[in-house]
Amino acid sequence: MSGPDSQGMELGFAAIEQAAARIGQSVRRTPALTSRMANDLTRAHLFFKCENFQRTGSFKFRGAYNAIAALGHERRRQGILAYSSGNHAQAVALAAQMQGAQATIIMPHDAPVMKVEATKAYGARVVRYDRYQQNREEIGDKMAREAGLVLIPPYDHADIIAGQGTAARELFEDIGELDLLLVCLGGGGLLAGSAIAARALSPACRIIGVEPEAGNDGQQSLRAGKVIRIPAPKSIADGALTTHLGQLNFPIIQALVDDIVTVSDAELIKTMAFFAERMKIIVEPTGCLAAAAVLAASMPCRGQRVGIMVSGGNVDLATFTRLLGGTGMAN
């Protein structure tokens, strides 16, 4: 773990407490499930924080609702703009609808159909782009300027980070201190928020980010001590196909996170099957990142109390069936 960075430490646990009060009963307090088989396999005590049961099917609703609520009525009336491959899109769309704001969402052409349709169903206008040829940040900045919309990015935003941190806050409140916390990593909002909560509520806990093997920009950044940008990665973990960590997120991760590891698509599929067969829950590939590190990639955790962020469950039935076609579940 690197030394603290003053920029990254400006966002503290008080912001997460404020977010928890702001979002109140608008978000679900998701369960921390356990599995005797998972414990036997790892020789550890695993606690799965199941944000797949959150509104819109992922942790993203926490940050989106908090960020929009923090704007105030007049700014909400300007309209909300976001870019996302799916989960932040749905979260912003519903959070905006609930707070009387109109949302426009920029989504890649290869975003899962289910996520696009759900975003539209929540009342948002969807604008498509090619993630391999176009830059969504540039598109978003241009649209925000021209239309006067309030841009809420998916992870590089203080109110987003604070909102996401409420999931870890709940986990520690419900199960107490941990030896190890594993968190899915895309742009870094969930990891940054979780790290702040962990350091406040379980100071001795080791914090590990987990990202797809094909998109290890976070791992590279932590090793290099600066934000590393990579080409748009390709992985079944569609919610973690970011090209770089956020400028707000990275200093927090650098200061508070112990390590970042990766898992393969094959390991994600095995973990999806485990959740479906043994725990009877549906988890999308991205949501399996943290769990795969211990269930499929064999991260040592024997004898430890381990928290695992299950970040979402938004996977359509056709994709779910196709991905699990070669596992024991389909046989």
Outline of the structure:
The protein has 14 helices and 10 strands. With 331 residues, it is α/β, with parallel strands linked by helices. Strands 1-2-10-7-8-9 form a 6-stranded mixed sheet, sandwiched between helices. A 4-stranded parallel sheet has the order 5-4-3-6, with helices on both faces.
Descriptive account of the structure:
The chain is of the alpha/beta class and 331 residues long. The chain has 14 helices and ten strands. The protein has two domains: 224 residues, Rossmann fold (3-Layer(aba) Sandwich); 92 residues, Rossmann fold (3-Layer(aba) Sandwich). The longest helix has 18 residues.
**What does the radius of gyration come to?**
18 Å
Low-pLDDT stretches are: 1-9
Helix-strand pattern: HEHEHHEHEHEHEHEHEHHEHHEH
Q: How many helical stretches?
A: 14
Tell how many strands the DSSP assignment holds.
10
Shape: globular
Q: What is the strand content?
A: 5-15%
- The CATH topology assignment of the largest domain is Rossmann fold
Q: Major beta sheet, specifics?
A: 6 strands, mixed
The N- and C-terminal alpha carbons lie at a distance of 44 Å
